[in-house]
Sequence to fold (520 residues):
Amino acid sequence: MESIPWINWFIMTASFVVLIWLGWKSSKIVHSNNDDESGFLVAGRSLGPFIGASTIVATGYSGWGFMGSPGVAYEFGAIEILGNFMFAPAMVIAVLFFAKFLSGRAASMGSNTIPEYAANLHGSGDLARLVQGVAAVVTIVLLLVFLTSQIKAVGILAAGWLELPQVWGATVMISIIILYTVLGGLTAVAWTDTLMLMGMLVAAVIVCIQMFSDIPLGQMIAQLNEINPELVNPTTSDPYGQAKGAVYLVLPYAFMFSAVLPYMAVRFLAFREDVKFSTVAIFVAPFACILSLIPIVGLYMRIKMPDLAEADQAMPVYLETFLHPILGGFITLCILFAMQSTANSLLHTVASAASHDLRRALFPGHENPTTVLFINRAAVVVFGLVGLAMMIYAPPFFLSWLGILGTGTLLAALVGPIFVSAFWRGNAYGALAAMVGGFCTSGYLLIWSDAGWVVGPLVGCVVSTALYIGVSALTFGLDRRVDTA
Amino acid sequence: MFLNSWVLDWFIILSIATISVAVVAWLLDRTRQDD
Fold:
């Protein structure tokens, strides 16, 4: 079915109006508490369970769930449904068993970002500033590449949908993200994420109704079994690893992803003091489970159109072929939402790492609230434009080289100071050693070995943990454990 | 295998388990609050 450009433009414009309106409404929270930085950085610690759960799920599920994952399911079969699903229990476990601890400790120390939390937890003075600075630099370098890839993905999809050149598509999308993030900081990001998640859930339901009314699940499995039994009963976990159970390694990886990565974990810092995390989990669980159904499109397409030239075309061709243009347009908007809801969180986190963490590490003592808010907002504009410029001008080999490191390396770098410190708290030397060691190990394995995107970072996490504990234990004589944390 | 696919069996089992854990944690919290 052909798409209708003016309907797509209408849907897109309507969504922009609502997103900017939400940004404008949320700007009041930025100015609460006498323009304290927490208003911009952690939504003035004002998020309730529903909005908080929505922003966690929307940020965790990027465009991958809608575009990449169905392609993998098309090629490798049902193993991808299980692999992609692991993020659902991981998010629930992180919310139930880690969020309360992180939120309470960060609030008691006055930490407004994850690098600042790492610094406050491990020292004071120059050493703490060094921890904050190193954590901020690692966050900026690794998340900026991820942000660039999200801008590119949004640009490609928007360009095809609105019949624009790719650069224009990316420019329009990042401009809107910059605008509402500048207005409302993390509050705007969380509120817009909530709206986007509702769209993504409706899209998932529409897709499931269409697929299962055409081919019921039992028949789908039988037909896939006829095509190739490996699609439904694989003897390996390929592409997650050769062992049959390797797919389950995604669970610890996804848990660390939800609990440690700055753009995910900062959400735990933004909850209202009275919020029960069990109430947050009761929203997170069904939201994440519903979104986990989307990659089944790949299995459906394998039956309906087994000869696609590229597996990645599974979702775009599905939308063109099996849905009415208006429904297809709406679901494309929701896929853009999935990408945008990750991109806005990345942009906010990268900007905060520069404007708050690096500023405090390099220039402590400059705390005029109006100036600081201006710097925070300016950083959002600057890094949004840097991401766009990198998409247009950076050599592709450079981006793909850094992209391989991805969030897994950031995870390995921060697991010691953020996660292990919940059970055994080290000192600033241990935190620095863990960040450098985790970064190098995961980076080395991802670039120069065949370890894969799950095993490489998990080994990095083990090395980071060992260094955190070992170096801290050896240097407690030089730098004692912080008493107040 | 109730779905004739071990992968999809585990997908269903873990989906139910995920939602159940969230519901049980919420009920426990509410019970504690009422006490």
About this structure: Helices of chain B lie at 6-34.
